[in-house]
Write a structure and sequence with these properties.
Strand order of the largest sheet: 4-10-9-8-7-5-6
CATH topology of the largest domain: Aspartate Aminotransferase, domain 2
Strand content: 15-25%
Shape: globular
Low-confidence stretches: none
Order of helices and strands: HEEEHHEHEHHEEHEEEHHHEEHEEEH
Distance between the termini: 45 Å
Largest sheet: 7 strands, mixed
Mean pLDDT: 96
Number of strands: 15
Radius of gyration: 21 Å
CATH class of the largest domain: Alpha Beta
Length: 398
């Protein structure tokens, strides 16, 4: 009989030719355990969704209570279901008053596609602008926003009407015109290397969108839910988007996403014709219950209040001769070592030491640390000890 690993390789779809093949048995807190009992420190947070760690008792309790009631009843938006309503209310209570209507979906890429539909219908315009080196998802709509033709050439024709500007380049903002339906922008470019907006770039972007009656869509799929030290990252930059996209950590570890906008914009999808956007499992009650439990951890248990302390530990300790630059937004850090080969050696060496960090799609000299928000200071120091020791070892053989 084939092993699970062999079955995985021969009968399950892969994302690349060299998967890590880590065979997980269970997970708890910041740790993953493989079938042989080895313990791995997850500094990726499952690439975002596990911001509250693995198996948090508050979230598990919420999941169990909801599954005892019901798991699914009807396509989203037809029945009044408490988990959806309660989660939407909690989100709205912690967002600017303009963002008063929530539509739940399954994933971030779906939220992006829905925002593309919404903004085109609302404005009656065709053109959508995104940033180079941005990643918004892998459906054909979201992938059309991607700028690297070497990747998208295999899936042509993409959705038409897409143009690109360079993040943090104010000169490019003139490309936003009265023909532009929307600018879809990551508040912080995650896969680009944890690139933060500088020199009031987002304020200038907001102003240009206002001048041209263009809708500003902020993709906070990776950075919302406290990751950067505030509930949403845009709060730190003095602007409010027309449409906000959230996913990953929103579901407390389960699949959940949302696009959020003023009702005056959102109701564009409700009629003429009706059913402008549909989803069967979006807003799944169990996922919404888990998401609400996560929000309560942030706000009622005041988890958000201690993120800055942990961020300071990262800021102070990430100093090493191999490090060219550290780019940080709270508990998301891009560590640039200036060389692709060195970067991959560090990532692999850390994996061998059972530390999971992340490589990036659009920056091959940078690895990323984005640990669960619940990581303790002791756990964080321990992980950093291993990272810095590993970099010492690699430096010695260069």
């Amino acid at each position: 009989m084939a092993t699970k690993r062999a079955f995985f390789l021969h009968h399950m779809g892969q994302t690349n030719l060299a998967p890590s093949l880590l065979e997980i048995e269970r997970a708890e807190g910041i740790y993953l355990y493989d079938v042989t009992g080895n313990r791995y420190i997850d500094l990726n947070s499952g690439i975002g969704p596990c911001a509250f760690g693995h198996g948090h008792p508050t979230i598990l309790d919420a999941i169990k209570k909801q599954t005892d009631l019901y798991a699914h009843t009807m396509v989203y938006g037809e029945f009044v279901q408490s988990p959806q309503v309660d989660l939407a209310k909690c989100l709205i209570d912690h967002l600017p008053e303009e963002l008063d209507t929530v539509y739940f979906l399954n994933s971030g890429t779906e939220a992006v596609d829905a925002a593309m539909k919404l903004t085109r219908k609302y404005t009656g315009r065709y053109e959508i602008i995104s940033a180079r080196s941005a990643y918004h998802g892998s459906t054909i709509g979201a992938e059309s926003l991607r700028s690297d033709f070497e990747f998208t050439m295999y899936y042509q024709p993409m959705v038409p009407g897409i143009k690109h500007i360079t993040f943090n380049n104010p000169d490019d903002l003139s490309k936003i015109t009265t023909r532009t339906a929307a600018v879809i922008m990551e508040t912080i470019q995650a896969e680009g290397g944890v690139l933060l907006p500088t020199n009031d770039y987002l304020k200038k972007l907001r102003t240009r969108c206002d001048q041209t009656a263009t809708l500003l869509v902020l993709d906070e799929i990776q950075v919302a839910m406290g990751r950067t030290g505030t509930f949403c990252a845009f709060e730190q930059y003095g602007i409010v988007p027309d449409v906000l996209l959230m996913a990953k950590a929103l579901g407390g570890g389960l699949p959940l996403a949302a696009f959020i906008a003023p009702q005056s914009i959102m109701k564009t999808l409700w009629n003429d014709p009706s059913h402008g956007h549909l989803t069967t499992f979006g807003g799944n009650p169990v996922c919404c219950a888990a998401g609400l439990a996560g929000l309560k951890l942030l706000f009622e248990d005041r988890l958000l209040d201690i993120i800055s302390e942990k961020a300071n530990i990262l800021r102070k300790r990430l100093v090493h001769p191999l490090i060219v630059e550290v780019r940080q937004a709270g508990l998301m850090v891009g560590i640039d070592v200036g060389d692709k080969d060195i970067n991959m050696r560090i990532i692999q060496a850390l994996f061998d030491k059972r530390i999971l960090v992340d490589y990036l799609l659009f920056n091959d000299t940078t690895f990323r640390i984005a640990p669960p928000l619940i990581i303790t200071e002791k756990e964080l120091h321990h992980a950093l000890d291993i990272i810095l020791d590993t970099m010492d070892e690699i430096k010695m053989v260069l």
